[in-house]
Amino acid sequence: MPDAPVFEVDPRAFWSDPYPDLARMRAEAPIARVPQLGGAVLMTRRADIHREEKRIEVFSSRQPEGLMTKLMGENLMRRDGEAHLSERRALFPALSPRTVRETWLPLFRERTAAILDDLAPRGEADLVRDYAMPVSAEALKLITGLTNMAAAEMDRVSQGMIDGCSNYAGDPAIEAHCHDCTASIDRHIAERMPRLSAAPDMSAISVMERAGLGPDRISANTKLIISGGQNEPRDAIAGAAWAVLRHPEVRDAAVAGLLGWDAVFAEYARWISPIGMSPREVAQADTVEGIDFTPGTRVFLMFGSANRDEDAFDAPDRFDPWRDTSAAIPFGAGPHFCAGAAASRALIAEVALPMLFERLKGLRLAGEAPFGGWAFRGPLAVPVAWDA
Amino acid sequence: MPTIHATDRTGVTREVEAETGLSLMENLRDKGGMDIAAICGGMASCATCHVHVDVDWMDRLPPAEPDEIELVEFTEAYDEARSRLSCQIRVTEDLDGLRLTLAPEA
User: Fold this and answer.
1) Mind listing the pLDDT tens digit for each residue in A37-94?
2) Identity of the residue in A96, A98, A335 whose CB atom sits nearest the CB atom of B40
3) How many Cα neighbours within 13 Å face the side chain of A246?
4) Could you tell me if residue A96 is inside a domain?
5) Which ipTM score applies to this complex?
6) Where are the beta strands (DSSP E) in A324-386?
């Protein structure tokens, strides 16, 4: 059997808009090695990803030499089997649908209302920087237990880790910045720990401590939650708001209660998946769709491409919140299914989007919204104005 | 080989010749060809394998773990008397004759 064919991309164009290349890959070379992306083999079709992500004996999440493990410690997303499950169970009480509903949701509403109180008189803002970022950070402070961290610092350390984990070119400045970010998280954990030990709550750090996880495990998993829980909801909130503002029929239906914000969020997460890729490493030789995989090969499961797969969705490039999105896999398609999915749905679809459109009357776009990224993708800025 | 009477979302009932040792979800999906997303692959993480079990059968199933209950009770189609995640039920000979319906998609 042959190795994966080579598919060349222009890294800058791929960062600006990966979808044309991904569409070509799905049609011509659905499993292909991309030299410009660190030589990784990309899997781009929904059916392949949906099937293979569950075969953890071949496509392993363990990547001891990977950048995430080296920079952030070995978190539960970089483990498989029982080691993964036991830590996931330890963390589950902080993120379960029940905890989200009973503990976090009322606090999400309270914090978001305060952010909107500050914002409302201004009449204009960048939705990414001034709304989505602090809303996401305030939620993450509660969920992690790091209520001692400023919202802007939460955003900085999350972005710093994401940049560090995708620093395949080995830029020493990016690596140093990532170390600075993880050190900041460890300082904040050390400061909060005595208080959380004395007065346990439902935060991730507190439930992990109660489950008996040691300081290294708590630190690594907290960094994972921050790297996966700040930028993504931020990008989904600002991106979905932008999509709604660009589609007046969607805005009118959602504001009138004729279309659920959960459907808006689900379709946005399909259309422009905030997490476009999840990496794996081949643990044992195998053949998939006629392509040989050899141990050690880095594989990228392209969720963003799966969610635009023509075999699964009609007119996949169109934003249509009335469509059936049940085949979409923005949270993954296997044992590593996003542990924060319930929290993100509650924050985005029940709080951030409805409260934004309810509070800021006459909300409208006030300029271009450039998007960027392929592993993580979202708007860089969304300038808006409203009737203050 | 236990037979499971499984009704799909259109109301059509199929007799699934189930394999013991596998989960109910795997049997419905792979042996019965039923439309179950089971996105997380059976880890009690996504609640996309939700089924409504005939009330007469609920007490005869192994009890649900807290993880399962927490996930399923917040789905839209949750019914305390009938709801289970099919990935969390291992099929044994005792389940011969089990009747269930796929829950509506969330």
Assistant:
1) 989 999 999 999 999 998 999 999 998 888 899 999 989 988 888 888 889 889 989 9
2) A335
3) 17
4) yes
5) 0.72
6) 364-365, 371-372, 378-379, 383-385
End-to-end CA distance of chain A: 64
Task: Give the tokens for residue B45.
Answer: 């993480």
Chain A residue whose CA is closest to B65: A89
Positive/negative CA dihedral, A22, A268, A332, B101: negative
Distance between CA atoms of B30 and A318, rounded to whole angstroms? 32
Q: Is B43 at the interface with chain A, CB within 8 A?
A: yes
CA-nearest of A260, A211, A217 to A240 is A260
**pLDDT of A268:** 98
Most confident listed range (A11-25, A326-340, B66-80): A11-25
The shortest C-alpha distance from A54 to chain B (Å) reads 6
Q: Is A317 exposed, middle or buried (0-12, 13-18, 19+ CB in 10 A)?
A: exposed
Number of domains in chain A: 1
Q: What domain range is A174 assigned to?
A: 11-385
Quote the pLDDT of residue A1: 59
Q: What number is the average pLDDT over the span A15-32?
A: 98
Restricting to B residues 48-67, those with a Cβ less than 8 Å away from any Cβ of A are: 48, 67
Which residue, among A46, A49, A54, would best test binding to B if mutated, counting the most B CBs under 10 Å from its CB? A54
Please indicate whether, in this complex, the C-beta atoms of A101 and B39 are within 8 angstroms of each other.
no
Cα A156 to Cα A162: distance, rounded to the nearest angstrom: 10
**Which residue from B minimizes the CA distance to A327?**
B37
pLDDT mean by block of 10 residues, chain B; 106 residues? 95 96 95 88 86 96 88 88 96 97 85
Mutate to test the interface with A, among B25, B29, B43, B73 (most CBs of A within 10 A): B43
- Residue B106, CA distances (Å) to A188, A297, A308, A325 in order: 38, 36, 21, 10
Q: What is the average pLDDT across A3-16?
A: 96
Please tell me the distance in Å from B30's CA to the nearest CA on chain A: 13
Nearest to A337 among B43, B67, B73 (CB): B43
What's the average model confidence in pLDDT over A274-297? 96
Strands A298-301, A291-293: pairing is: unpaired
Question: In the structure, what pLDDT confidence band is assigned to residue A98 with cuts at 50, 70 and 90?
Answer: confident
One-letter amino acid identity for B79? D
For each of the domains in chain B, give its residue range(s) and CATH number, in order of start: 3-102 (3.10.20.30)
pLDDT tens digits along A287-297? 999 999 999 99
Query: Is-contact A226 A140, C-beta < 8 A?
Result: yes
Residue A6 is assigned to a structural domain of this protein: no
Q: Do A331 and B67 touch (CB under 8 A)?
A: no
The mean predicted confidence, pLDDT, of chain A is: 95
